[in-house]
Amino acid sequence: MHEVSLCQNILNRVLTEKAAREQNNLPFSKVNKIKVELGRLSCVEASALNFAFDAVMKGSVAEHAQLEITHIEAKAICNACKEVITITKLTDACPICGAYAPKVIAGQDVFFKSMEVS
Q: What pLDDT is recorded for position 49?
């Protein structure tokens, strides 16, 4: 379950930010919200990510944080007609010309966007 590893990376990012802010006399004691972008082709299940998030954050400064997930559409460039298209899976055909195997340009990643703290 790679959702657990993703959440551990999120927690590491939170703890790194906490340490950096403490060094600059800008401490925080609680994370209220963490925002992530989840690409449609990232192979990450939002429900599994939410479950892992709650388990990994337990006992940390982010224990009661809300995880806000924004889904990002997958975009690709058709190798035949060179149009930018929206796809739902890697095996989708181009809706314009019908060619297969487009080059994916967005929607495969998970991004840590921001966090709200107090």
A: 96
Q: Beta 110-117 vs 31-39: how paired, if at all? A: antiparallel
Residue type at position 89: K
Rounded Cα–Cα distance for residues 73 and 85 (Å): 10
Are 32 and 24 in contact, with CB atoms under 8 Å apart? no
Q: Which residue has the tokens 């892992």?
A: 52
Say whether 33 sits in a helix, a strand or coil: strand
Q: What pTM does this model have? A: 0.86
For 57-86, the pLDDT digits (tens) are: 999 999 999 999 999 999 999 999 999 999
Assigned CATH class of 2-117: alpha beta
User: Collapsing DSSP states into helix, strand and coil, what is residue 7?
Assistant: helix
* Tokens encoding 46: 């939002």
73 sits in the region (left: phi over 0; alpha: psi -120 to 50; else beta) called: beta
Model confidence pLDDT, tens digit, residues 81-100: 999 999 999 999 999 999 98
Token duo for residue 31: 């994370």
